[in-house]
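Listing S7. Sequence submitted for prediction.
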Amino acid sequence: MARKETPQINASSQADIAFLLLVFFLITTTMDVDKGISRRLPPMQEDQKQEDIKINRRNTIIVRISASDRIMVGSEQMDVSQIKDKIVEFVTNPTDNPNMPEKEIKNIKGFGNYAVSKGVISLQNDKGTTYKKYIEVQNEIVRAINEVRDDFSKQHFSKKFAQLDEDHQKIVKEAIPQNISEAEPKDVKGK
């Protein structure tokens, strides 16, 4: 009896077809990329590189965010919407309150002498703090600094900070520094 052979399909080009399909799908699909916070950090000053700077307690305001997203500014519990006004008051110290930041007279190139606040805003959060609340608080702090810079710009240059040229913006940044310190997140629950 004769053996019957089963017909076979020629599979020599299947690898080429699979490769072409793979290349097609790689080219035509898009992939989502997570993005972080776009924040440009100020350059480190030469005198700060080697040593820690000692800061007077009155020159620091601590903004804490707990694991349950409660916010404490100094010793007061606050809502996010109240942070901006508290920071503006802290940075400007309009009444020269001895419990708020002291001011140092600086000679700003192109402007002259100005009383610059020594205030530092310390942002501290728990490891359980939600990312959303952390960003909201950080935005309010930056918004407060921007408001003070805008007020200074309008008073001395009759324009908002963003509308100033580069030289005038540099003057405003020296007069109203953005001194924000972000501490390492703490795990309060674990202790």
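Caption to Listing S7: primary sequence and predicted structure tokens for the chain studied. Helices lie at 14-28, 80-92, 131-157, 166-175. The CA atoms of residues 3 and 124 lie 83 Å apart.
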